[in-house]
């Protein structure tokens, strides 16, 4: 009798599931089913007889019933959190889970630009998640998801709304508000999406030029959007051309630092080499062996692998030095990124910090996490695969506070 009743509950619950899913959307329904799944796991562990299993599974489906009783309220947006959730709170949740360093920078941005900063950084994190959540070889799914965001961004600049783009999407709502408030350029958004899509499908870099091109299309585009959101007037101390060129070098520095942090992901999980060939001192095989958690590292190849890593670090250091020199007026504006290898290995990471204008602090503060990471990398003998680097840096909040208070770059 209990089994027959359970089957009836299942049939009723499945129809309720379908109705709720259409009303509240996938995000809220995911939370409901997650709770149901926990009850299923609990019931599966029961070994005390069929009556206990049936009782627990009935409790599982009764949770659907409680939601079905409130389904009318959910459909009107009274209970559905995904429909009434504040867009900025949603973006902060993305940063909290996927870009914690950006979350720490929020207090240092002016009130007029804070929402735009959160929305832009959340969009970047959301785009980065696409390639991480899709298995290799499923390029079509990647293209569909990036095309959705491309259409969504374009819809923010149009008066009419597209039927294929949800207007109540929290992140899209925040982006649309930032575009309207600060007149952000569509070019940088589309350029960012295109570069992310191409890199997701083909992450390898043919040479240093392709790495710099990727940096200019991603990190530089983000910095340009953030600088637009600040709405700073052009003054002799903040010439637009000078700041733009400085941000260009800074974007290269931040991109290289980010790739150094992601080397374990690329070499251990995706099994792909991303270091430009003209910066490689070792072979790709030696680098893969070095990155292996279980492979015995060959002493003869360790030195060549470390020289490869150091070439990236030296290049990143030359880029932030170029960014600083541009701001103080001692740098050649025709400078091009090139392989830079100083003789003194103790001066791989320079600390020649400069003082910048207070109004520029928020935009240049975005480089502080990269600087902090390189200092941590030095503390582990420049081994990006060291497990200690996988933990959050407890010094980062204090470093951000120091750079912001004393206007340091």
List the helices and strands and how they pair.
Layout: H1 2-44, H2 50-69, H3 71-75, H4 81-84, H5 87-98, H6 100-105, H7 111-133, H8 139-156, H9 170-182, H10 186-201, H11 208-217, H12 219-230, H13 240-269, H14 284-291, H15 299-328, H16 361-364, H17 368-379, H18 396-405
Helix pairs in contact: 1-2, 5-7, 5-9, 7-9, 7-10, 7-12, 8-10, 10-12, 11-13, 12-13, 13-15, 13-17
Pfam family, one: SQS_PSY
Protein name: Squalene/phytoene synthase-domain-containing protein
Organism: Phakopsora pachyrhizi (Asian soybean rust disease fungus)
Task: Give keywords.
18 helices; 67% helix; 409 residues; disordered N terminus; Squ/phyt_synthse; mainly alpha; Squalene/phytoene synthase-domain-containing protein
Task: Report what the structure shows.
The protein has 409 residues and is mainly α. It folds into three domains: 2-81, no CATH class; 85-202, no CATH class; 223-409, no CATH class. Helix content is 67%, strand content 0%. It contains 18 helices and no strands. The longest helix has 43 residues, at 2-44. It is globular and about 60 Å long. The relative contact order is 0.07. This is Squalene/phytoene synthase-domain-containing protein. It comes from Phakopsora pachyrhizi.
Q: Would you summarize the structure shown here?
A:
By secondary structure, the protein is mainly α. Helix content is 67%, strand content 0%.
